[in-house]
Amino acid sequence: MTPPTPDDRASPDDALDPLTEQALEWQVRLHSGEDHAAVARAFEAWQHEDPANRQAAARAGELWKLLGGALPRRRRGPPMAVIALAMCGLAVGGSFAGGFFGPPRAWIADQRTSPGERRHVVLSDGTHVELDGGTSFDIAFTARRRQVILYTGQIYVVVQPDATRPFEVRMEDGTARALGTAFDVRRDRTASTVMVAEHVVRVKAADLPDATAVDLEVGQEVSVTANKIGEVRRVDVRTRTAWRQGRLVFDGRPLGEVAAAIARHRSGRIVFTDPALEALRVTGSFSTTDSERMLDAIEAALPVRLLRLPLLTVIRPDPARRDGREGGSQRP
């Protein structure tokens, strides 16, 4: 398939951009029964932080209006179940047209897996690629280079050496070029993460010059956005690649990252009504075949309440346990 050009990364026709998704989450909070005045003030402040935020708020407002007329109105706001069902309808109705579940290219990619599915493929050059659930990528091989274009999900790559054709994984945020053999790439909603299992991988942000690229060695990991390369971290390779054996292992990882991993193993979206919840830390080891148990463990260990519906899980604060928001872990 023809690979997208760098200028295609943020095409508004492909997907809801992260700012619009964030603005939609503000809409959920505004209608969720929280302190409306406080949320409205915070939302207004967020919009004034950047003109792009105001534009995203306008887009999210229009999307919400598509469903708003059907929502029963109460003095204290509609019940959370109604809000969740509305978001579910938006997700289903817009999954193809708006890309709410990922860019449309993901649905026609050369390789893709469904949530909960894992697959192992061998590319034409002999390179091995393992796909986690909810993963999609295109293959762009030429006489001068080998490239995998990752749209969604997570892959583990064992590269077949070829001195005449470098191998790289390209994401919306940048590229990971193999200077060795094995590495892991994860594409999340707002960033990509690269982890090296063998030899060296060079990571470059899409909008930064080549001179800013960083070389990762075995056991190192870094997250990258289009205009920023994060701090290089030392990680345990076996923990980070446990998904290849059907396990998700977290050692004090942010709940937002954990939710993204769980979402690759169940159908539908996981959304937060309060972005602060995404920073809560989770510790535990789970089977990828039992996402319900993962969610049960999170609800038991952290000050959150979960509303689970077909194609949608809403994570919101638990007022009865609000004082414990800074802690919480689970080792099932």
Summarize the structure.
By secondary structure, the chain is α+β, with helices and mostly antiparallel strands. It has three domains: 17-97, no CATH class; 105-239, Jelly Rolls; 247-324, 3-Layer(bab) Sandwich (Phage tail protein beta-alpha-beta fold), CATH 3.55.50.30.
Instruction: Provide the structure class.
Output: alpha+beta
Counted beta strands:
19
Number of domains: 3
At CATH level 3, the topology of the largest domain is Jelly Rolls
Architecture of the largest domain, CATH level 2? Sandwich
Radius of gyration: 20 Å
Mean pLDDT: 81
How does this model look, in words?
This protein is an alpha+beta fold and 332 residues long. It has three domains: 17-97, no CATH class; 105-239, Jelly Rolls, CATH 2.60.120.1440; 247-324, 3-Layer(bab) Sandwich (Phage tail protein beta-alpha-beta fold). The protein is built from seven helices and 19 strands. Strands 1, 2, 3, 4, 5, 6, 7, 8, 9, 10, 11, 12, 13 and 14 form a 14-stranded mixed sheet that branches. Strands 16-19-18 form a three-stranded mixed sheet, sandwiched between helices. A hairpin with a 2-residue loop joins strand 12 (220-225) and strand 13. Helix 1 crosses helix 3 (51-68). The N and C termini lie far apart (43 Å).
